[in-house]
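lol ok so funny story. i was supposed to be doing the assay writeup but got distracted and ended up predicting the structure for this chain instead. priorities right. anyway since i did it might as well share w the group, maybe its usefull for someone
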Amino acid sequence: MKASTPLQTIGLLGGGVIGAGWAARFVLNGYDVKIYDVDPQAQRKISEVMTNARRAYAKLTLAPLPREGTITFVDTPEEAVTGVDFVQESAPERVELKQELLARASRVSPAHVVFGSSTSGILPSQLQRDMTFPERLVVGHPFNPVYLLPLVEICGGDKTSLDARERAREVYESIGMRPLMLQKEIDGFVADRLMEAMWREALWLVNDGVATADEIDDAIRFGAGLRWSFMGTFMVYRIAGGEAGMRHFMAQFGPTLKWPWTKLMNVPELDDVLLEKIVSQSDAQAGSRTIRELEMLRDDCLVAVMQGLKQVGFGAGETLAAYEKKLFSGATIAPTNIEKPIEVQRLRITADWADYNGHTNDSRYMQLSSEALDVFFRSIGFSNDYLATSL
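and the output, tada:
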């Protein structure tokens, strides 16, 4: 396995929602792709995904992107994997279909070319069954939209080599992704098993008339979902345990796992062995940070997420914008002594106001000027009542 082979061209087997996302991520990172897909509308659909991806990347980073790669559509899986340095399969979730596709493609592909499968739950040992050089097959499970979400779960099968896993990690990291290296083969891998548990409970809540789909989504996106976006599950619970940490949290809330709160009642026994494993892993996550430092990190991340959402006026960002508007509209200013300078702004400039040089962005200067002028007008009597009655 040539783990250090330069990456130039990618073969994509499947150009649906996931395959198109892979195409966008690879192309925008400067790599050429060859795509095989039986859908006669594949070119149109992928072109539209590319347009969305370009738009997203323009907002994602100010860093200069490499020159875009090219997209070539081919008529057979064999053509898609000829002369490429890495293959990503994203066919529909049917075992027999994927096995046949991977078998055909692997017969003409050199042994050193690693194959990644985008499957969301099929075991890699099943997928590599009929392949030539099956040791080069890994699961590289992404999340939609592939061109934005960084997580990719890498999972090997019974025959997968260590070199193949490392080559896959190298490829995915080169396009800005965060590989999660799974040490054990399991149906659904990690992320989908967690999402499946929540999905099952959500379906029961709708089925039993407890909540609507909209209410369930609101329960996530205005609450725990915001924290999950940067701290996951275990770190959030560790903080909830206060200064005593995860052990205290488990002592308080571990017994509730036996309560009939959900339909999923098959839970592991919280014996001393499992408890010690959870506590030790939680301690390792926290490192040397104190509970107060973890709380500050959490707060900074929450503020960053909500401020970001405010820019698009959606979810918790929409709520924050409405709250700010209320604060501004209800603000009262003490009578101004015009014989002294008027203080119109006093605030702490945060890191997100700075550009890569550490200087405040021009747009923030404009914001400061606008807000300062607003304070000045209120200080000389431009109240909401006055503005409502003036022309």
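Strands lie at 9-13, 32-36, 71-74, 86-89, 114-117, 137-141, 151-156, 178-181. Residues 291-312 form the longest helix (22 residues).
back to the writeup now i swear
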